[in-house]
Amino acid sequence: MATTIPAAAPAVAAAVTTPQDRAVLRDGSAVLIRPLATGDVKAIITWFEGLGPQARYERFLASIARLNDRTLAQLAQVDHQEHEALIAVTAEGTTVGLAQYIQLPQTGTAELAVAVADQWQGRGLGSLLLHKIAARARAAGIRWLTVECLASNTAIARLLRRLGPVLITPPAFGVIELRIDLGQASTTAAR
């Protein structure tokens, strides 16, 4: 089955060509943070290939060896309004991080996901991507971000607390939902 990705509308395409942000991470390494271009399957595949089995399991809540066509198409269908995605790209052009939200209709809520390639973890990249995607969500009028994650993934819960107050559901089958209130500024937010 072929993956069909719609072309970006002209107004949306203009949003993708905004200046890229160069970020220097804790260890001195640098990446470019930019919006994912609609249909940029290559960037998604290189990002996914950098995720080890544990990172893939934590991001997709399943053991997967490769992205199927449906998932790849869903990740690539950004419109930079209701579905936003930011990627971190090395100087060599390798995508090493991806953060995205998908807005739920008429709720003021969006589902959030982020994952960083194994070799780039522990440098502050995940936190940087979360802050940037949350800023875009706020600008889009989104009040709440929700994240489903493994109850054992304490690192993501710790990062999310920097975005705003977090409500956590009781675990069900080892998975929890975290609900972040973007309407209230967090006093511990790292910028």
Indicate the topology.
Layout: H1 10-16, E1 21-24, E2 30-35, H2 41-49, H3 53-60, H4 69-76, E3 83-89, E4 95-104, E5 109-116, H5 125-139, E6 144-150, H6 154-160, E7 166-168, E8 175-181
Parallel strand pairs: 5-6
Antiparallel strand pairs: 1-2, 2-3, 3-4, 4-5, 6-8, 7-8
Compose a concise summary of this entry.
With 191 residues, the protein is α+β, with helices and mostly antiparallel strands. It is built from 6 helices and 8 strands.
Question: What would your notes on this structure say?
Answer:
An 8-stranded mixed beta sheet has the order 1-2-3-4-5-6-8-7, sandwiched between helices. It has 6 helices and 8 strands. A hairpin with a 4-residue loop joins strand 4 and strand 5. It is globular, with a radius of gyration of 16 Å. With 191 residues, it is α+β, with helices and mostly antiparallel strands. The longest helix has 15 residues, at 125-139. The protein has one domain (10-181): 3-Layer(aba) Sandwich (Aminopeptidase).
Quick one: overall form? Answer: globular
> How many domains would you count in the coordinates?
1
Taking Cα atoms only, what radius of gyration do you get, to the nearest Å?
16 Å
CATH class: Alpha Beta
CATH superfamily: Gcn5-related N-acetyltransferase (GNAT)
Question: Strand portion, in percent?
Answer: 25-35%
Total number of β-strand segments? 8
State the separation between the terminal residues, measured CA to CA.
43 Å
Strand order across the largest sheet: 1-2-3-4-5-6-8-7
What is the residue-averaged pLDDT? 86
Count of helix runs: 6
Query: What oligomeric state do these chains adopt?
Result: single chain
Structural category: alpha+beta
Largest sheet geometry: 8 strands, mixed
- Helix and strand sequence: HEEHHHEEEHEHEE
Fraction of residues in helix: 25-40%
- CATH architecture assignment name: 3-Layer(aba) Sandwich
CATH fold descriptor: Aminopeptidase
